[in-house]
Fold this protein.
Amino acid sequence: MAWVRACATDEIDEEDVARFDQGDRTFAIYHSPEDAFYATDGLCTHQAIHLADGLVMDHTIECPKHNGRFDYRDGKALGAPVCVNLRTYPVKVEDGVVLVDVG
Amino acid sequence: MAFTGTRRDYGLLGLDAKAAVENGLASAKWYSCPIGRKELKEFMRRSDGPALRDTALWFGLLAFSGGAGVALWGSWWAVLPFAVYGVLYGSASDSRWHECGHGTAFKTRWMNDVLYNVASFMVFREPTIWRWSHTRHHTDTVIVGLDPEFNVMRPADVLAILLNVFAFKNVVLGFKQLVLHASGRVDAEEATFIPDMERPKVFRTARIWLALFALVVLACVLTHSVLPAMLIGLPTMYGAWLQLLFGLTQHAGLDEDVLDHRLNSRTVMMNPVFRFLYWNMNYHIEHHMFPMVPYHALPRLHEVIKHDCPKPYPSLYAAFAEIIPAVLRQAKDPTYFVRRELPSRAKPLDLQPAGPGMVAAE
């Protein structure tokens, strides 16, 4: 386990996403409509576009370049042009801080 | 005088495709006008309402004009309703195909998918093939050798453009590909942008479409009339002319191989009827820069970023006053293009706005 601080919970609006970089890795952190937090790889599996620039609708993240969609809870690709699932990471919230297990 | 110089290779497997990759033009970082994350989110917000209203109106007009055409069939008066029906069928379907392909017309995904497939048939673009082709068009817009959706290459082929006034070239080539796909194959260029897992869908759809066209022909034979084809199939051709006019405004005559949509795309002001038929794709710079913004929000987005963009064309007429001479000149001189002037206060190309929502690691 390698828990790292991604952001404060109030840094991401509900039903929105933010980018989190660590070293040469980039992640997307999601705040769901039910006030839960999730984390995935930060780049779309189709063409390496930052998903944090995309649109969160319910539990879906839409890539800003080609509108490919994933369920950010399990990383599932929801149809063309995305065919490869996103990797997801465990998340926990402690004292108003979002922690991601990037290990 | 015909062009006799060296031609660029617009094929997806040619020398210019290789050069574009080597020059860093493939899947590159594009210029984006500065806009705050919160404001952009508002523009990106999805809704079913506008597209449901517009789709009901579109199908209502199709039913009314098609019904009038059937009622008047046999007299010259039928020309009028079929002229309207043809434009609604063969031209307005282009923008519905496009917006639903992006998944931005409706909030509800299945609604996008249903209308996408219906509009694809009307405009005669195989849905899976063209979904992937359009994806590439957005990745590598007007990059020679990478963009499969050039509508005017250099030197400009004026005859090919004229043949598409009634979609003749598109339909002939489209049928050739349809038969190929129905036989269970894609060609080498298509193989560069369609993943293996999507191909069974291509083959299945091609077979269904061929069966539908066979049914239309059978209906014509059984009724001893071309009327069934006037309603399904032929309007793709006799109603295509407005789609061509709209489509040419997007990129024709402008620069190639530039990573800035402000220089290779046009925003053209249009009247409300054209904007209904074209679903606001006249805001083409805005669409390419922010493809997640639904068509109904593009006019508002335009107001926010216009200070950073070239002046929009005030009318379709103004756009064609530039496009026609430019394309005619490109038929002889493929080095010619219209250079768009950026406003003096526009951000320069090498300054990318910071990514929104950035959270630094500790």
In short: The domain at 3-101 of chain A is CATH 2.102.10.10 (Rieske Iron-sulfur Protein). The radius of gyration of chain A is 12 Å. Chain A has one domain: 3-101. The longest strand of chain A covers residues 16-22.
